[in-house]
Design a protein that fits this description.
Length: 221
Amino acid sequence: MSLPVLYSFRRCPFAMRARFALLAADCACEWREVLLRDKPAALREASPKATVPVLVEPDGHVIDQSLEIMLWALRQRDPLQWLQLEHGTLAAMLALIDRCDSGFKHDLDRYKYPNRFQGADAGQHRDASMAFLDELDRRIVVAGFLFGARPALADMAIAPFVRQFARVDSAWFDANAAAPLREWLAALTASPLWERAMHKQPPWKPGDPVCVFPVPAPTAP
Ligand SMILES: N[C@@H](CCC(=O)N[C@@H](CS)C(=O)NCC(=O)O)C(=O)O
């Protein structure tokens, strides 16, 4: 039986969130790691916009939005209940993720790479990003995660971007971000699922033997 094909890039936060959900759903894919500066023709053929992640189902159907890949995987199997909330709704999670992908990502890019955006003031965009992070913090203090006492879709979709923000200037983040937010990020990034999703894989080229994502979990000695 052929597997869906996943085009991915290890450090891309969009691709990370897709891999988290594929792992959570235990959904095996043929793994094609790409270099963004040298994208394979097969990726462009599947999705001319050529961003990662892209998932191509065995029947040829293409999903080229990270959140759609998450939902596609979790609607097949959701053992960690990322779509099942005790408090809040899926619509509320999607709305928060949308704000991450629009406003927060806009400010994050300009904080991280001010030279790539004419007239960008890194400090101003850092402060604007913090307004969103403070809002996340107000949710996290209630029960530990964004929508309750365990991670759900929104946590896993948003955390890769918060991690990117934290890493721009980790000393500044440690001194200025609220403790619950920092603890939330530390808990997620230290989780075995996160670690497995960040497994290193050399770039794919046509003709390579099939490599499957996820790689098997390490077994206890
Ligand atoms: N809306 C897309 C955005 C994906 C995206 O922008 N990915 C970046 C990498 S983090 C990308 O592929 N950029 C194209 C490039 O750098 O050439 C999604 O959610 O999947």
